[in-house]
Write a structure and sequence with these properties.
The complex is a heterodimer of chains A (469) and B (84).
Chain A (H helix, E strand, L loop, with lengths): L7 H9 L5 H19 L2 E4 L1 H16 L11 E5 L26 H8 L3 E6 L19 E2 L2 E5 L5 H8 L5 E6 L5 H6 L3 E4 L19 E6 L2 H11 L26 E4 L9 H16 L4 E4 L7 H16 L17 H12 L2 H14 L5 H21 L5 E5 L15 H5 L6 H5 L4 E7 L2 E7 L4 H15 L2
Helix pairs in contact in A: 2-3, 7-15, 9-11, 9-12
Chain B lengths: L1 H9 L7 H11 L34 H6 L4 E2 L2 E2 L6
Antiparallel strand pairs in B: 1-2
The chains are: A alpha/beta (469), B mainly alpha (84).
Chain lengths: 469, 84
């Protein structure tokens, strides 16, 4: 049977009605991984036996007429910064090349409770620092739609796994656009929840006030169904919010839409601009009330992000010293060991951000850089709050360009950072946002108010139907 | 120059050039244009309160797995270089 376009709900129904078995589903996706992963390199770690034995357990549950979880039999791929107990978790880095996770992340506990089929761990820019998945120690991930182009990053592996049909759904992480941008580049749906909606326990921290884990799939309802499972309060994550999701029950046409003029940046690809504007016009023709809004501090978002994020990174990366775990080639004394383990274990982009962060936080520069950035962050967040007094949702592009060619930007850090210009504001303000594919390799960004993911999903599902007419 | 080199040293890493950072620090200068008078800092974008719990010990159940990750050990002890 061809499971290429199957959804989460169809899998569960099929298993309950005994139209197929979990082992058949597992076998199908295992074959796809064997067929495609060499070329695309979405998966870093994939163990066929583990997958098939998970599937057997699910089939036993069905045989014993036990109740099945909502993700029963759904193949899921996990970004390699999300810990799965007993499995290697590398964060795409030499530092953790042989690190085996000693506990399950909160999200992994939830998906296991719901009988999902974990296929394996996916490739990523090292420690989630990058916008192309070219910064992985283990090699780059190619865009399944055009193998000479990048898959985007840092969740390139998770996105490519779904886009190429090697998995039905995946989890990534988004600190400055790392789910939305690759989702846009590979034409799948990718969503970053409100800060605090999904527990970060078990996610290797990059920037603690910005990181969120989020779902990736081909369709909005699959993303929504995964979000329902992974969201909610975790007492072991002090930044997790007591949030319970409820479906949007009102008329979706009553949702007011804003389009921020500042997000159609100078130098943006005309193809991207045309595609996104066309979809906004279609929404207007369909009866949505659309108005222009202004987010006046947008031009500063990237600078704010590239101070706050490296500052938090410098703190979070201090633990990687090769003493308790990780890459360790100890020298004669402690300080030399630190230099050696970190010097050899960490890649160039990671080092760049650690030093930037330490600099921004150092005495004499703290006020001018870090504290100033924190104040501008307040202004960026206020811009969104003002806009949301007039509208329910904001529509914008995700990336100013189409996916760039492999190797095109990797030598120029600032060029690479500019690809985040339309996504970082959302993380700074802690808002939820989703990338919805609107043309090949182009995504439309739907930004919502905090804890209003249901409006994003409702309009996303509506647009999917509208555009496929 | 000296300050940046000092920071690189404190970061305990090798192979990081100061010149690399200068381009990015130049870009960030644009934040000086913003009027931040009387604006508060934002450390966290969502209104949440920290959590506390009773100081009770509990078993995490994975000591073996953690000990197996030690690069240098003696029985259950982590071996480290002397600090002084």
């Amino acid at each position: 049977m061809d499971f290429s376009n199957i959804t989460i709900k169809e899998i569960k129904k099929g298993l309950e009605e005994k139209s197929f078995s979990a082992q058949e589903i597992a076998g199908f996706f295992v074959e796809k991984i064997k067929e495609k992963n060499d070329k695309i390199f979405a998966f870093l770690d994939f163990n066929e036996e583990k997958v098939l034995s998970q599937a057997k357990l699910i089939d036993n549950k069905i045989k014993n007429k036990e109740k099945l979880g909502s993700l029963a039999g759904t193949p899921i791929a996990l970004k390699d910064n999300i810990m799965v107990r007993g499995t290697k978790c590398t964060a795409g880095s030499r530092m953790l090349e042989n690190y085996i996770a000693p506990y399950d992340s909160f999200v992994v506990e939830k998906i296991k409770e719901n009988d999902a089929l974990i296929l394996g761990k996916t490739n990523m820019d090292e420690f989630a620092m990058g916008s192309s998945t070219e910064q992985s120690y283990f090699g780059l991930t190619r865009n399944p739609l055009d193998e000479n182009r990048v898959a985007g990053g840092s969740s390139g592996g998770s996105v490519a796994a779904v886009a190429s049909g090697m998995s039905v759904v995946a989890l990534g992480s988004d600190t400055g656009g790392s789910i939305r941008q690759p989702a846009s580049f590979c034409s799948v749906v990718g969503m970053k929840p409100t800060y605090g909606a999904v527990s970060r326990r078990g996610l290797m921290a990059m920037a603690s006030s910005l990181d969120q884990i989020g779902p990736i799939a081909k369709r909005v309802d699959d993303v929504e169904n995964v979000f329902k499972v992974i969201s909610g309060w975790d007492k072991k994550d002090s930044t997790s919010f007591n949030y319970s999701y409820s479906d949007f029950k009102n008329n979706v046409k009553e949702l007011k839409i804003g389009v921020p003029r500042e997000y159609f940046v100078k130098g943006m690809s005309p193809e991207v601009e045309k595609s996104v504007k066309k979809k906004i016009e279609l929404a207007e023709k369909d009866g949505f009330k659309i108005q222009e809004v202004s987010l006046p501090h947008s031009e500063y978002a990237l600078a704010v992000y590239y101070i706050i994020m490296p500052s938090e990174v410098s703190a979070n990366m201090a633990r990687y010293d090769g003493i308790k775990y990780g890459f360790s080639e100890n020298e004669s004394d402690l300080i030399s060991s630190y230099f050696n383990n970190r010097g050899k274990g960490l890649g160039a982009e990671v080092k760049r951000r650690i030093v930037l962060g330490n600099f921004a936080l150092s005495s004499g520069y703290y006020e001018a850089y870090y504290q100033r950035a924190q104040k501008v962050r307040t202004l960026i967040s206020r811009d969104f709050q003002e806009a949301f007094k007039k509208v329910d949702l904001i529509l914008a592009p995700v990336s100013p360009t189409l996916p760039f060619m492999i190797g095109e930007k990797v030598k120029d850090p600032l060029e690479m950072y500019l690809s985040d210009v339309l996504t970082v504001g959302v993380n700074l303000a802690g808002l939820p946002a989703m990338s919805l594919p609107c043309d090949s390799m182009i995504g439309l960004q739907i930004i919502g108010q905090q804890f209003q993911e249901n409006k994003i999903f409702a309009i996303g599902k509506h647009f999917e139907k509208l555009w496929n007419k | 120059m000296k300050e940046k080199e000092h920071i690189i040293n404190l970061s305990r890493i090798t192979d990081q050039e100061v010149s690399d950072l200068n381009e990015i620090l130049d870009y960030i200068e644009k934040l000086k244009e913003v009027d931040i008078k009387e604006v508060e800092v934002m450390s966290c974008p969502v209104d949440i309160v920290n959590v506390v719990r009773e100081d009770e010990s509990c078993n995490s159940g994975n000591q073996e797995e953690i000990i197996n990750l030690f690069p240098d050990k003696e029985k259950k002890f982590l071996k480290v270089k002397s600090v002084f």
